[in-house]
Amino acid sequence: MLINNKISLLCRFFLVAFAIQASIFFSEAQNSYGNEFSNPGTRVYQFEEEHQKLITEVSTTEDSNAISVLVAGNCFLKYASSEAKKPLALNLYFPGTSLNKNKKKPWLDDQTERNIWVDSDIITSVNISELMENGPSRVEIMLKKETPYNITRLNNIIKVSFAKAPKPVRKNNVPKEEDTLPKKIISLSADENESTISIIIKGNRRLKYTSVRQFSLLSLFFPGTTIETEETELSLKSDIISAVKAFELSGDKKTTKVEILLKKNIRYKINQDSSTISISFKKPYKPPAPETRLPDPAPKSKKTG
To answer: CATH for 52-163, among 3.40.718.10, 1.20.1250.20, 1.10.443.10, 2.60.40.3500?
Structure first.
C-alpha cells in the first residue's frame, strides 16, 4: 500500500513538471511567432505581403523625346522583363502580383485583362492581364518597331521609356519671333465626321505638351501655358467622349491641363501642326442596318359565282 502511494506521488510530480515545461515551451513559441509576424522583414510578414501585392494602375505618357509606360503598385514590385520577336513586344512579368479589382478603381472593374490602345509610331497597345489568380501578372507592350528603351523605378512606380527618333536641328539658331511670345491656349473645339471625332487645341504659337493616358481619361499638360479663351468646357453628344475640360493648375510656373473623359477604351492619335494640336479618335465600325422588307401583300381572294 505504501509503495503504491509513493508511485502515485511520483506520477503526479512528473505530470506537474511536464505541464510546466509544456506551458513554457508553447508560451515561447507563441511569443516567437507573434514577434516574427509583427516585425517587418521577417518570413511570416513577407509571406503575407506577397499575397497582397497589387498592380494599382497602368498609364502611358508622351512628350517630344519619348513615349513611356508607367506601372504603379501598392508596394515595391519585383519584375522580370523579356523581349518577344513575333509579335514584337516587351513583356514585364510580376510574380505573386494581382491586378487591383477594387470597386473604387474603375480602370480594372472585375476583369482580369485590360488594354490601352496607343496609336504612336512606336507602341501599338499595352495589354495588362492576370495570368493566374494571385499572380503572376503581365504587362505586354506591343511594339511597331524595335526601339531602344530604358526601365527606371521611382518608389512603387516602374517606368519603361522608349526614345523617339531625334528631329533635325535647325541650322539657324536664332529663335523665331513667335518663339518669344508667352504661350497661350486661345481655342478649344471639337470636330466630327463619319469616321472620327477630334478635339482641337489651338495656341498662339507652337505649344509643348505631355500626354498621359489612363483607361477612361486622356490628359494633356502644357507647361508654362495659360488659357485665353472662354470656351474651357465641351459637352459632347458622342459615344466616345463624355466631356472635355481645360483649366490652369496652381503653382509657380503656370501649367494648363486639358482633360478628355472617355466612354470607351479606344485608339487615338495626336497630331501637331504649327500652333494646332488635334487629338483624333477613330469611331468603331458599325455595319449598315439591314434593309427592312415589307411583308408580301396578302393574295386577293377570287370571287366565285
So the answer is: 2.60.40.3500
